[in-house]
Amino acid sequence: MTAKPRAEGSVIVPLFLNGEGMRGGRVHPSIAHYAFLGEARTAPRYRFYAYEGGFPALWRVAEGGVSVPGELYALPLEAVRDEFMPVEPPELELSVIELEDGSASLAVALRPEVHARGESLIDISDCGGWRAYQASPRHR
Fold first, then answer.
1. I want to staple 52 with a disulfide (CB 3.0 to 4.6 A). Which of 17, 120, 128, 136 is the partner?
2. Inter-residue contact 100 to 42 (CB < 8 Å)
3. Degrees (nearest 5) of the Cα angle 50, 55, 57?
4. Which CATH code of 3.40.190.10, 3.40.50.300, 3.10.490.10, 3.30.565.10 fits the domain covering 12-139?
5. Which residue ranges make up each domain of the chain?
6. CA dist 39 to 23, 100, 114, Å?
7. 133 or 2, which is more confident?
8. What is the rounded CA–CA span in Å between residue 33 and residue 17?
9. pLDDT attached to residue 89
């Protein structure tokens, strides 16, 4: 798949992925044709959940956070809107997160109303990331 032509003046933004958008994940094809910037980690300001065991979700916390592993891509902002967000679950929303090096990146995070309900959330913060959680007995 080739990238769509960029609109003149299009802004390239970093997008942090920590679940099925990563290489080998089921939604990765939606962004696979964009520049892979490398593996990255969030700042230790997040809890990491599995929603109904099916997909991961970041949640920013004031204390007790962990550094979540993932991958960083460079995408035109229009691609985030038109190609990436349409394949994301409705329980997630676009957010700006802090990476381990202090820089900012777009990412998807749990919607506040979903977190407030607290239903179907499994805290996987101490599993070592989405792939590690999927490989663990907790996921089965």
1. 120
2. yes
3. 60
4. 3.10.490.10
5. 12-139
6. 10, 11, 28
7. 133
8. 14
9. 93
